[in-house]
Amino acid sequence: MVSRGFTYMAVLFLVAIMAGGLALTGEVWHTSTMREKEAELLFVGNQYRRAIQRYYLTGPQRQYPRSLEDLLKDPRQPATVRYLRKLYPDPITGNEWVLIKAPDGGILGVHSASEEKPFKTGNFKLRDRSFDGVEKYSDWKFIFQPAPVTKPASSRKNRADWPASRPASRNKRSKCS
Known about the structure:
It is a single chain. The mean pLDDT is 84. The protein starts with a helix and ends in a 6-residue tail after the last helix. It has 2 helices and 3 strands, in the order αβββα. 34% of the residues lie in helices and 7% in strands. It is mainly alpha-helical. The radius of gyration is 30 Å and the shape is elongated. The chain has one domain (10-147).
């Protein structure tokens, strides 16, 4: 009778260890899946950013696309010009992207609708540097904004201090003996 109680306790202990192992495995699997979705979000979001950039820069006039479908076939061009192969869903939610509107009414960029906290919070590539330290995926905004147009720097000939800025050895003539 004592051996039956011992066997029963051993089986309960074994079941508890297996349950803990399965719980740990489930958590690792969930974390791995979310990291894959996060990497896909970065990839697909940047594909949209690049497509919007190319659309903006290649048209007869500089304008943002009016819809995401314009990235599949540019209505401004007489021939078929594609900036994306297909419209990708938001990898985190599986639904459509939230659109960020430009001042001209077009689409400036996209972002996820997910309010979940991201696993990756730092060490982003330069193009995604604005994502450092954000609290949720919906703050990862994949936008294209053209660089502001600046005036070219004035040439050296127009600078008043140009002769004085030359090295001293060049201002004096060397004497050959």
